[in-house]
Sequence to fold (365 residues):
Amino acid sequence: MAKHMNGRLFKRFTLRQSFILLSAATVIAVLAVVTMEFAWAEKLRQRFGESDWILPPLVAMVMLTVAAGIVAMAILFYRWKLKRPLQILKQASEKISANDLDFRISYDSRDEMGELIEAFENMRSTLEKNVRTLWRSVEERKKLNAIFAHDLRTPLSVLKGNIELLAAYLPEKKLSEEKALELIHTMNLHIVRLESYAEAMNSIQKLEDLPVRRTSMDIITLTTLLNDSAKQMARQSGKTFVASMEYDHTQINVDPYIVMQIFENMVANGIRYASSQVNVHYDIQKSFMIINVTDDGQGFSKDALGKAVLPFYRGEVWDASEHRGLGLYVCKVFCDKHDGSLLIENGPHGGGSVTASIGIERVDK
Fold:
């Protein structure tokens, strides 16, 4: 108990105080031993009379005593004040070198070594925070790049399909000028969309940073554009696409590119799981545009109903090269950004049902 109390008391001293204390104790101990050695030499002189031979061993013993005292003081100073903190710093440095920052270091002393270890712990903590921030930034960028690649496929498919249509029928004049101009207009819209999307992806750090740019647009024009994309996607997959609507002819303020990304990801998800047909129903309710996509597949599993909107969730889809598990996650993020929501459920007659509520502003004519 006394040893423990002495150890705790000794840890309160600074290195300078500890060095002075050990030096004083060493001097006292050495003087005591040297005094004993002189007393021993005096006894020998009194016993043998002749004292010339006594002086050399006495000097050697005194020197050895002083040297032993210095060595003992250095060992005690190292063991009491330096050994443990140096071991702590060495182990911490080895962990940091191995990119392991998930640890804590502490030293129960108020001396300079305790202050050094505290500063080292602050440095480690700051480094850990910076690495975690950098890691999150890299992960967000990787996720963003995956989403960018994922969402490029649909407009590129539409452009490819329209080009093939023009190349096949325009030379033979089987395509009317009006239809050709319509296809060109659709292609131009998708090109502008790709340019806007690429510019946005280059400047933002995560998907949630994508800006919402509302513009006034006729609801018929918007749904026609959406249906054209869906028909292309369904045709390429050998599925049937059916659209229905329930709204008045009206003008709305909306970001058409975000709406298209929400819609295309919903349709792509429906096509992926549909047996033969995908249905889309549009509706305008108060300040929301409702888009409901259903399919005639097996529907969502219990696990998928809770996890389908998580990034990179793939469920039991085997074709992982084509399906990155990002579509519904993108839909949810964009619905939230557009003051709406996303609902995932199974239809009353089977199959999956995904409903996007997108916040809009009606434009009075």
About this structure: The beta strands are 215-218, 240-246, 251-254, 277-285, 288-295, 341-346, 352-359, 361-363. The chain has nine helices and eight strands. The radius of gyration is 40 Å. Residues 235 and 241 are 8 Å apart (CA to CA).
